[in-house]
Design goal:
Blueprint lengths: L5 H15 L9 H9 L6 H24 L16 H12 L3 H19 L2 H10 L3 H8 L5 H29 L1 H13 L11 H26 L7 H11 L2
Length: 246
């Protein structure tokens, strides 16, 4: 009995595959079938959406991990939380009074409070990702370089702020921010003929934590979009690699 040659086997296989393709896929052409047989079928909406969700999950996890570790804010010159503007005007006066170390400690403690709060973001981001639609995914994928960051900023800022607030408050109590702040401000306010100052520290640190988080998230998003090395899974390489050639 003669063996079936390769072309014959190939087209028989194509026919068999065609017979079992669902009616919803009836518009697949021969090139699509070759892709299925070769294991590199065209990207479907579902595959692309999964790739984007995976990218968002990785990006948000990296962001939260980066900022919640020790020095996440305090060791980064671009993210470090400085004195509130209301206190910057009195900083030099406090330092001339010999309170320079206290001012530095106060800044460090504010950053430590922000680092503790940043760890709360993972659950909020994950919940937002799970609620995304395919339309959301494609709008982000085909949007501007910071489309995902802006999406999260719009959808999560309010919840993140409410999650951060009690963590910041607790952290400020644990690391002694309130005590240092009270000491510094009371010393300054006791100076004759000056205008007393007061700051809502909790709101300030929460706002700066959010700002730092979205700044880092934007950087993560740009890396995944533009840098093949940042695509750490095969799905990311496939989905975003297909965008590189556009």
């Amino acid at each position: 009995m003669n063996r079936m040659n390769r072309p014959s086997r190939y087209y028989l296989t194509v026919l068999l595959v065609s017979a079992f393709i669902p009616l919803s896929c009836a518009n697949l052409n021969l090139g699509d079938l070759e892709g299925i047989l070769n294991g590199n079928a065209p990207l479907t909406q579902d595959t692309v959406a999964k790739g984007l969700l995976e990218a968002l999950t990785i990006g948000t996890q990296r962001t939260s991990a980066t900022l919640s570790k020790e020095g996440g804010f305090s060791s980064n010159s671009l993210l470090r939380i400085a004195l509130p503007s209301e206190l910057q005007q009195i900083e030099s006066r406090l330092r001339t009074l010999g309170l320079g170390k206290e001012v530095d400690r106060f800044e460090l403690q504010m950053n430590q409070a922000a680092e503790r709060a940043a760890g709360e973001a993972i659950d909020v981001f994950a919940s937002t990702i799970r609620s995304m639609t395919i339309q959301d995914a494609f709008a982000i994928l085909d949007g501007p370089p910071n489309a995902a960051t802006m999406f999260f900023k719009e959808r999560t800022s309010q919840e993140l702020a409410s999650r951060f607030a009690p963590v910041v408050q607790s952290a400020m109590e644990q690391v002694g921010v309130y005590g240092v702040y009270t000491s510094l401000v009371d010393t300054y306010n006791a100076i004759p003929l000056i205008k007393p100052v007061s700051v809502d520290l909790e709101a300030y640190i929460v706002e700066r934590t959010l700002s730092g988080m979205f700044s880092v998230l934007e950087t993560e998003e740009l890396q995944i979009r533009q840098d093949p090395v940042a695509r750490t899974t095969e799905l990311l390489k496939r989905v975003f690699g297909s965008r590189d050639t556009r």
